[in-house]
């Protein structure tokens, strides 16, 4: 027969062993649940990735990135219905070459000078953008009629309104669509009365001080 002291010791050992076993089982159960959950999530993500990759599901984080502004889209000012062409010898322009054609700004400047226009500057365009039109003719509020007048000499040109241009000088940026500057006779043939018409899609802008 066991003595009472020995029996108490054995019971204490058994209780300690049982507690450790219970603790281990709980840890194992938690690990099993955790690993099972992780495996299920990974399997689900893999299935979703395959569906997105094959195009069955759309990409959930697709973002719309802003596009660079189109340099060929400009704000064109309207003119009054009774506007008439400005005398060429009263118009001053700056000519810029945005193409890869060497010396084009100077050549266009010479053509305009031959028609009576005062050319203040000719150089390559440093704006970085290329233009598909024959020319982009920029003007402030004081040179709108002059810009429309000059535009007659550049078929398929566009007129750009720039409120920061405070003087009457017109900026002509020659584009890839440029072919030639029309002669005075050609312009007169197309517009014998010398009347100017607003370009399609023009915008009414302030004409304070416009000539």
What's a concise summary of this model?
This protein is of the alpha/beta class. It folds into two domains: 1-65, no CATH class; 88-190, Alpha-Beta Plaits. It contains four helices and five strands, in the order αβαββαββα.
Helix % is: 25-40%
- CATH structural architecture of the largest domain: 2-Layer Sandwich
Question: What gyration radius follows from the Cα positions, in whole Å?
Answer: 40 Å
CATH hierarchy class name of the largest domain = Alpha Beta
Q: State the separation between the terminal residues, measured CA to CA.
A: 127 Å
Structural class: alpha/beta
Count of helix runs: 4
Elements, N to C (H/E): HEHEEHEEH
Q: Give the overall form.
A: rod-shaped
How many structural domains are formed by the residues?
A: 2
Low-confidence stretches: 64-68, 207-211
Strand order of the largest sheet: 2-1-5-3-4
3D architecture notes:
It contains four helices and five strands, in the order αβαββαββα. The chain has 211 residues and is an alpha/beta fold. The chain has two domains: 65 residues, no CATH class; 103 residues, Alpha-Beta Plaits (2-Layer Sandwich), CATH 3.30.70. Strands 2-1-5-3-4 form a five-stranded mixed sheet, covered by helices on one side. It starts with a helix and ends in a 21-residue tail after the last helix. The C terminus is likely disordered.
Walk me through the topology.
Layout: H1 4-53, E1 92-97, H2 104-114, E2 118-124, E3 135-139, H3 144-151, E4 158-161, E5 170-174, H4 184-190
Parallel strand pairs: 1-2, 1-5, 3-4
Antiparallel strand pairs: 3-5
